[in-house]
Amino acid sequence: MDENVIITQWICILQPVWFVLMQVHDFYEKNRKQALSILNELSQLYAGRISYHWYTFVSDEGVTKSVLMRWDSLILQAQVTAVTVKETKRLAAELLAHFLFCSGWLPKKLQPQLVQENVDFTYDQKIISVLEKVNVKNVVKLFEIQQKRHRPLPLFKLVEPAYPTANAGLYVVNAVCEGYTTVGFGRTKRTAKEMAAAKMNKLIKNRVMSTRPTFLRRKGEKYNGFMDTIDTVETAWHLVEHRWVQVHYVRFP
C-alpha cells in the first residue's frame, strides 16, 4: 500500500448498545463465514489496497479493542469494549464487517448469508426413510434429512467446558436445526454431538408423525394432534435501518 496516499475520509463506527451488538454477534455466529475471515479475505481480494491495524486498551471498565481499516484514501474505525481480548476483537471485527455489508461495500462472495425463516418438519416419506436407517450415526442422519429437504444444514456448538479435566466435567453440545435446539452430553465431543443429534432426530420424528395424513394411519390408531408441544425458537434476523450505527465523516483539507 502506498503510504503517501492522502487520507480524504475517516469513518468512525461507534459501539451500539449491548443488546444490538449481541444481535450482530448472533448474526455472524450463524453465518458460515466469520467476520474475521471476511475481513481477511477482503484484504486478499484487494491486495495492496487494504490494511488493518489493531489497538488494545485495558482499563477498569474492561478491554477496549480498536481496529483501523485503511482502504486507499479511506479509513474506517470500529471500537468495542468488552471483557476479554479475544471477545473484544471478535466483536470489533463483526461491527466493522457488518458496516461494510450494510454499506454495500462487500463483494457478493463475501456477503453473509441472511438467516432464513424456519421451515417446520412435516410428513415426508423421505425423512421417514432416513430416520429408519440402521447402523447409521444420528449426526449423519440429521445432515441427510436437511439435504433431502434442501434446507440449511444443522449447526453444532460446543457449550462447556472447552477443556474438561480427566476425571471431571462433561462436554456439552447444542444441536440447532430449524429453530429447535437439543443438548447432548458426553466425555468426548463426538459422544456429546451424537447425543444431541439423536435427540434432534427424535424431535423431528415426533413432528413428522404428528402431521401424518389421517388416511395413512393404522387401523385403530388414535390421533391426538401434535405429540409434543414444542416452543419454537425464532431464528429469523431481520435487518432494519441501521440507526444504531453512528457515523462521523471527517474530511481533511
Automatic annotation (TrEMBL):
The record places domain DRBM at 137-206
This protein's species is: Trichuris trichiura
Q: Name one GO molecular function term.
A: RNA binding
Task: Kindly give the SUPFAM superfamilies that the UniProt entry links to this protein.
Answer: dsRNA-binding domain-like
Q: Which InterPro entries match?
A: dsRBD_dom
What is the protein name given in its UniProt record?
Answer: DRBM domain-containing protein
User: Which Gene3D superfamilies does its entry note?
Assistant: 3.30.160.20
Q: Which UniProt keywords apply?
A: RNA-binding
